[in-house]
Amino acid sequence: MEVRLALFAGVIPGFVTLVLLTWIWRRAARRQVEGPITGGLWAVPLIVGGAFLAGDWVVNGRPQFWPDSNNYRYVHAIGLIALLGVLDALVRLPAWALFIARACTLSGVGLMLTEGYAPQSIAWHDLAGWLALLGVGGASVLGFADRGARELPAYATAGTLAAGGVVALPALFLIGSAYGAQVGAAFVAVATAAGVAGLIVRRATLPRGTVTMIGGGLLGLLIGAGVQWEVASVPATVLLGLTPLALGAAGVIARGRGLAGLLLGVSLALLIAGGSAGLSYWADPPGEDDGGSAADYGY
Questions:
Q1: What distance in Å separates the CA atoms of residue 155 and residue 149, rounded to the nearest whole number?
Q2: Closest by Cα among 182, 138, 188 to 165
Q3: Segment 155-172, tens digit of pLDDT
Q4: Whose CA is closest to 212, among 98, 69, 132?
Q5: pTM for the full model?
Q6: Residue 204, strand partner residues
Q7: Which residues, listed in sequence order, are joined to residue 37 by a DSSP beta bridge?
Q8: Are 172 and 270 in contact (CB under 8 A)?
Q9: Which label site among 23, 65, 169, 268 has the fewest CB atoms less than 10 Å from its CB?
Q10: What is the spatial distance between Cα 283 and Cα 40, in angstroms, rounded to a whole number?
């Protein structure tokens, strides 16, 4: 399974991303002699969504139209985020409308992954409050990350997201989501390939849909892990969800200086995601007598 997962959720989508974005950006660079290039923003959400679907197929088999179990609704949740990512890339929404769209999407993701637990495990009014908090909080994180991406070249944006993702995968495993640690590799593969394409076409940028897809996808996996399993550490889960803030901080501080933004963004992303992994390990070290980490049986 590991080889097929690496191939369908990593190598193939990464190659498609590299070739497609390089082609789109080179064409745009010939037409647009000066200034940042923003073409092809729809590609990353589409490719990540397809890669996640392929990874889920490898892990769980053929997806169901609407599974009874919340554990098998990740494809639907990530698909909803991918749709918003494409919309965000193709249509320039006002800031307030984009905030509302992101908040509603993340709340919808939360509802997909928690619906089966209400009202037995959580009252509907309590669930509504938590979903509203997730939506507003997640949209705020993505909004700040997007602000940073608008100030940075594509290689700095993608490099920051990829670095955070590399550490986020083991952090997800330690938190309790073995599934997220496996299939989430799709985010890292596409972000890495987009970064390489950005190095080839230095004027390219990756705001809007890319941030919505990769940052929102991480938040979606965290929502599922937090709801469906008793996570190893709640602070670690919250901290990992703040990883996209590294991109926002890098863009605001570096202000268009690509290399400085890349170094700062990667450093902050590694610090935040690494801190989350450390908190999870400290809270529940693997191999303890209590049965081990939640990741030993987490979905």
A1: 10
A2: 188
A3: 999 999 999 999 999 988
A4: 98
A5: 0.89
A6: 37
A7: 204
A8: no
A9: 65
A10: 42
Angle at 217 between CA 212 and CA 221, to 5 degrees: 155
| Amino acid in the structure at residue 263 | L
pLDDT-derived band at 286 (thresholds 50, 70, 90) equals low
* Residue pair 188/169 in contact by the 8 Å Cβ criterion: yes
Q: Which amino acid is at 169?
A: L
pLDDT top residue among 223 and 244: 244
CA distance 31 to 58: 41
Backbone φ and ψ for 201, nearest 5 degrees, come out as -115, 95
Which amino acid type is present at position 274?
A: G
pLDDT-derived band at 233 (thresholds 50, 70, 90) equals: confident
Inter-CA distances, 98 with 59, 153, 163, Å: 33, 22, 26
- Half-sphere CA count of 142, side-chain side, radius 13 A: 35
Cα separation, 166 vs 272, in Å, equals 12
Which positions ≥6 away from 42 have C-beta within 8 Å? 85, 86, 89, 90, 209
Tokens describing residue 227: 């709801």
Residues in the chain: 299
For residues 158 and 210, the answer to whether their CB atoms sit within 8 Å is yes
Using DSSP's 3-state secondary structure scheme, residue 37 falls into strand
